[in-house]
Amino acid sequence: xxxxxxxxxxxxxxxxxxxxxxxxxxEQMIKxxxxxxxxxxxxxxxxxxxxxxxxxxxAEAVRQLEExxxxxxxxxxxAVLDSMTVAETIDYDVLLELTPLNIFTGQPAADHIRxxxxxxxxxxxxxxxxxxxYYKELKDLAKANSCCFFFETTVMAGVPIFDMADSSMQYxxxxxxxxxxxxxxxxxxxxxxxxxxxxDTLKMGRERGFLEADPSMDTDGWDATAKLTVLxxxxxxxNLTPDKVDRTGISGVTPEEIKAAAERGNIIKLMxxxxxxxxxxxxxxxxxxxxxxxxxxxxxxxxxxVSIYTDLLGKLDIMQYGLETSVTGYGVFIxxxxxxxxxxxx
Amino acid sequence: xxxxxxxxxxxxxxxxxxxxxxxxxxEQMIKxxxxxxxxxxxxxxxxxxxxxxxxxxxAEAVRQLEExxxxxxxxxxxAVLDSMTVAETIDYDVLLELTPLNIFTGQPAADHIRxxxxxxxxxxxxxxxxxxxYYKELKDLAKANSCCFFFETTVMAGVPIFDMADSSMQYxxxxxxxxxxxxxxxxxxxxxxxxxxxxDTLKMGRERGFLEADPSMDTDGWDATAKLTVLxxxxxxxNLTPDKVDRTGISGVTPEEIKAAAERGNIIKLMxxxxxxxxxxxxxxxxxxxxxxxxxxxxxxxxxxVSIYTDLLGKLDIMQYGLETSVTGYGVFIxxxxxxxxxxxx
Lengths: 346, 346
What we know:
The structure is a homodimer.
Chain A: E1 2-9, H1 13-33, E2 35-43, E3 49-51, H2 58-68, E4 78-79, H3 83-89, E5 94-97, H4 109-118, E6 122-125, H5 128-144, E7 149-150, H6 162-168, E8 174-180, H7 183-193, H8 198-208, H9 216-219, H10 222-236, E9 246-247, H11 255-263, E10 266-276, E11 282-292, E12 304-310, E13 315-320, H12 325-344
Parallel strand pairs in A: 1-2, 1-5, 5-6, 6-7, 9-11
Antiparallel strand pairs in A: 2-3, 3-4, 8-10, 8-12, 10-11, 12-13
């Protein structure tokens, strides 16, 4: 039996959700693919690390984090490791880059992936940074080393945009993308539409646990910008970086503007727009926009939506409603499935 | 260089659109995949057949049909053949089943595909019939013979539903599907909403060329029923046949009902609904329904839409807007791409 040895960098929401899906489907995957997926290391920033070259007990790893808040230093597989050392030295088949995002540099995640690919190892990234800043370089590196490089989780979590583009939209040209890609600003604008002030909305979101102490990555449009950049790099070969996107956040949107828009039958959304111009240049913009209330983009139940304009398939919309953590974990899981599929026939 | 030899059964709108896309991308495909796709036979019901074991001139084949209305009996590769003889005897790698649909039996298309798979040949079907009537048998046969069996075109043309389910939604369970799957009834109901009578709408559709002389397959709900059956068979393992679907067409819908619905803020659409019940049984229904006008399903620009309810990804919507013939040809093309991908690593 072939094995697929995984080293996991970062083990937050996505990592734990991935582990649960993997544990639930592991036996069937082995039957289907003839490859046994095993996790050999998990590194975290502040909750310790685990390492066992023969495979960790993944259920036990999840249990320790959930019940004890960190890995137990007395546990037999406890190890003192850091992510770069793992990327450089451990004998994994796939590196799973799940560390926290640095939206302004894509580092150190990009270096982790670069190291793995240069060693001829596959890489899976749930981290948008490396894709937003170094997509072309990393893609070329993966190709040159005959490695898989998957990143489904980076936009719309596990909703299959990139696998679809790669597998099901071959030779289709994309010339325009429109989307609403950030769930936090959706929530804030929706609450403000009910008359709540911007400050009170932030407070409520923090109390409910889905706004960070500093939500500026969302409210300033950086998260949406990074996602638009990744979409355009992958689907349109845009070779774009986030700093080149014309970006306006939502912190300037007032309840009065939302009310005035509603009187015109419109709803304000943080829209992402990217297109290829006739001269080959590209335009990329993230900004609040009025959307007609009867437009499918205005649907309040939506978590995210993307419209893809193509030459051969016309226009397609893909809409995401699920916000469960399983959706994020599934993105990592499906990337791992695709690596196993790759390994199973080679 | 490996070759992938294709025998094409039926060469109407889908076949010609497929040929155009293949011709436009052929050189790049050979570079990318290291497999050369060649068409070795084309059979039609009434426009003659072509056969050359070394490969036909596909551009010339398309030209003859478009300019002369049929294959030229004097042409060097003209042949007297029938589809079943091709399926049974010719040395192809992939059989492309593009013959006209028999919605009540799935034949003779199912026999063509069965024959190919039993011979260990790959099969691509743009014909819904075999999928609606014999999906499980054909899928098992393909698996037992290690063959590809793809059919992207059968629902929402080339919009990647089945490849997505197969590749990007692995181990995800689907427990409900909702959709508007038939473009013709969309058109008729929309026109009737403007006050046109049912009879005048049919007349207009025929004059514009997108309604058949007998549109009853669409208006009686058979086309939508076959598509719902295929979706449920593939995504939900429903093992359903079209005769088991609770089916009501739109011929009973009156302008008065449409007007009354509009006064309630609703639009009438031919809805398809399929679900798995708690006891493991399934429910499948096609019928006209009132949809709130502000619902994304009510969008008049839509050609088709499907909502997929899953355990791990929550709910997803996929919306198709493009009605160009390229969308249909692309479904066949992407299935062929996937066969080439399969061959390229084996």
